[in-house]
Specification:
With about 100 residues, this protein is an all-alpha fold. It has a domain of about 40 residues. About 35% of the residues lie in helices and about 0% in strands.
Length: about 100
């Protein structure tokens, strides 16, 4: 998983193991950083294809929810707006996806 382009206010994910490849490692970055207004559709497609089967899914989601609200892109199948909603409505989502 590339951490470039996630914003200067966000540190890169600290949960990656060099011996275990993330399912998104070879994916086109546009899948996770879509242009235009199709973020929710892109998130659903990314979650089905890459995120759910990934060994890092839970840790990626926890990491994404722990970041600032300006974290750009789709992380663990969630958009910026979906993460904002999860933080407000389900505080347990920060601990257990």
């Amino acid at each position: 998983m590339s951490v470039r382009g996630i914003g200067i206010r966000s540190a890169g994910p600290d949960f990656l193991d060099p011996d275990i490849e993330a399912a998104c490692a070879d994916a086109d970055p546009e899948v996770f950083f879509p242009e235009g207004s199709s973020h929710e559709l892109a998130a659903a497609l990314a979650e089905d294809r890459y995120c759910r089967p990934c060994p890092y899914y839970r840790r990626c989601r926890q990491w994404a929810l722990a970041q600032t609200e300006d974290l750009y892109g789709i992380w663990a199948g969630t958009t910026k707006e979906q993460r904002r909603h999860l933080r407000r409505t389900r505080p347990r989502a920060l601990v257990t996806p």
